[in-house]
Design brief:
The protein is 37% helix and 19% strand. By secondary structure, the chain is an alpha/beta fold. Bound molecules: adenosine-5'-triphosphate and magnesium ion.
C-alpha cells in the first residue's frame, strides 16, 4: 500500500479561537492514549494531525481513530515532496494502485502554502495531463468523477489522497469537564453517555441496583455497558458507582402510594446522584430521559422529579426519536446488551397506574411517611465504586452483590 500516513481533521475545533490550543492539546493526548500499543507516531501540525503509519495495520489504526471524539474526518494519504515532478509521479502511482478498471476521475488541488510557485489550477492541470497520458483506464469527469485525486500542498510537503472519511466529530472527551451519567441497563442511557462524551464531557457512571430484588445479571449488564462506553473514555476507563438501592426500593413499596412510587423513586435517585456528583467533582448529571416516552418523563413529571436538586441535568436525548436512539445504540455496540431482558429497579413492581402529572406538594407529603434522608445518606455511604476498564472482567459477587436465590420467597 502506498499510503503511509493518516491526515486527521478537526473541523469544529478550528472555530474556537483562543480555546483552540487547549482543544488541540486534549485531542493530541486523547489520540496518543487511543493509539497505545500500535507502532505509529502522531505529529501535531496546528491545523492538522498526522499519524505516521510505520507499516502498522491500517485497519487497526482506523478502528482506534473512530473512538476519538473531536476528529471530524480523516484521509489515508501519501506524503511526497512538493516538487512537481514528485507530485506527478506519486499521483500516477496512487492511481495505478487504486484504479484497475475503467473509471472517471478528477484532480482537486488545495494549497495551504501560498508561497508555492504554482497555483492550484496549474497543479491540477499538470497532474491530470500526466496521469491521463500514463494511466489508460482513466478518463476525466469534472462533475461526477468516480475517483478523486486530492492534492494538498502544505509548507512541509505534499499530501495525496482519495477519500475523506467521516469520524466521530464533536470535542475531545474531557475538555468540557466531567459529568455523572445515570446508567440503567436500558437502551437510552448508554446513548446519552456516548453523546455527552462526544460533546467533550468525561463521564463517571452511577447505577442504582436493587439486588437481590433485581437479578445480578441486570447489574452485570450495566458493567458490560460501561465497558462499551469506556472505549471512548480518556484512558479507556470509567468509574462506576454502584448504589445499593434495595432498602429504599422496599421502603417505597411499603410507604408510598402506588401512583407516586416511580416519581418518588426518581426523586431519590436524583438526590443520591447529586451527592455522588458533588463528591466526585462531576459538574452535571446526565441521563437518558426523553420527553414523553413514559409516565415519569412527561414534562410535569420531570418538574416534580427535578425539584429535589438544583444541579444541572443534561438530557442529551430529550428530543430524540426512539429510532434514532436505537441507531446510535447499535453503532456503539450497546444495543444487543441493552435489550437483554433483565429487569432493573424501574421494571420490577411497576405500578399499574403511575401518575403522569405528579404534584410536587403531593410528593413531599408522601415522602413524610418515612425517614428517607438517612436512607439516602446510607446509600451514598455504602456506594461501591469501581473502575471499569474497556477490557476488564469483573465478578460482581466479589462486590458483595447478592444473588437472587437468597430472597426467592419475597
Ligand atoms: P433507559 O433506556 O436508559 O433505561 P428509559 O427510557 O427506560 O431509559 P427510565 O427507566 O424512565 O427510562 O429512566 C430514565 C433515565 O433514568 C434513564 O435513561 C437513566 O438515565 C436513569 N435511570 C433509570 N434507572 C436507573 C438505574 N437503575 N440506575 C441509574 N440510572 C437509572
Ligand atoms: Mg429504563
Amino acid at each position: 500500500m502506498l499510503y503511509n500516513q493518516i491526515l486527521v481533521r478537526f473541523g469544529d475545533l478550528t472555530l474556537k479561537g483562543k480555546n483552540q490550543k487547549v482543544f488541540l492539546h486534549s485531542l493530541y493526548k486523547l489520540m496518543k492514549t487511543k493509539m497505545e500499543g500500535l507502532n505509529v507516531e502522531i505529529e501535531n501540525q496546528h491545523d492538522r494531525i498526522f499519524i505516521h503509519l510505520n507499516n502498522e495495520q491500517v485497519e487497526k489504526v482506523i478502528e482506534r481513530l473512530n473512538l476519538v471524539s473531536g476528529i471530524s474526518s480523516y484521509s489515508l494519504v501519501v506524503k511526497c515532496s512538493d516538487d512537481i515532478t514528485d507530485i506527478k509521479k506519486t499521483s500516477l502511482q496512487l492511481m495505478q494502485e487504486l484504479v484497475l478498471d475503467n473509471k472517471t476521475f478528477k484532480v482537486n488541488t488545495k494549497r495551504s502554502n501560498k508561497a508555492y510557485n504554482l497555483h492550484s489550477m496549474e497543479v491540477t492541470k499538470i497532474v491530470s495531463a500526466y496521469v491521463l497520458s500514463n494511466h489508460k483506464k482513466l478518463t476525466v469527469d469534472v462533475h461526477h468523477p468516480e475517483v478523486s485525486l486530492n492534492i494538498e500542498i502544505r509548507k512541509d510537503a505534499c499530501y495525496l489522497y482519495n477519500t475523506e472519511y467521516k469520524a466521530m466529530g464533536g470535542y475531545p472527551v474531557g475538555v468540557a469537564g466531567k459529568g455523572l451519567l445515570m446508567l440503567s441497563g436500558g437502551i437510552d442511557s448508554p446513548v446519552a453517555g456516548y453523546l455527552a462524551m462526544k460533546q467533550g464531557v468525561e463521564i463517571e457512571c452511577i447505577h442504582f441496583e436493587s439486588t437481590p430484588l433485581t437479578s445480578i445479571e441486570s447489574a452485570q449488564k450495566v458493567v458490560d455497558l460501561v465497558k462499551k462506553l469506556a472505549k471512548y473514555a480518556p484512558h479507556n476507563k470509567i468509574n462506576l458507582h454502584m448504589i445499593p438501592f434495595k432498602e429504599i426500593h422496599m421502603a417505597l413499596l411499603e410507604h408510598i402510594d402506588e401512583s407516586y412510587n416511580i416519581t418518588i423513586m426518581r426523586r431519590m435517585m436524583y438526590r443520591i446522584a447529586t451527592k455522588v456528583a458533588i463528591n466526585n467533582n462531576c459538574l452535571c448529571i446526565i441521563n437518558g430521559e426523553s420527553v414523553g416516552q413514559v409516565a415519569s418523563q412527561t414534562l410535569a413529571s420531570m418538574q416534580t422529579i427535578n425539584a429535589v436538586t438544583n444541579y444541572p441535568i443534561l438530557r442529551p436525548l430529550c428530543t430524540y426519536d426512539k429510532q434514532d436512539i436505537i441507531k446510535i445504540s447499535k453503532q456503539i455496540d450497546c444495543y444487543d446488551l441493552s435489550i437483554k431482558p433483565f429487569e432493573d429497579c424501574c421494571t420490577v413492581y411497576v405500578p399499574k397506574a403511575p401518575a403522569t402529572a405528579p404534584k410536587i406538594s403531593k410528593a413531599i407529603m408522601y415522602e413524610k411517611n418515612f425517614d428517607y434522608e438517612s436512607m439516602v445518606d446510607e446509600a451514598v455511604r455504602n456506594t461501591n465504586s469501581i473502575v471499569i476498564d474497556c477490557n476488564s472482567d469483573l465478578d460482581l459477587t466479589l462486590l458483595g452483590l447478592e444473588v437472587r436465590e437468597v430472597l426467592k420467597n419475597m
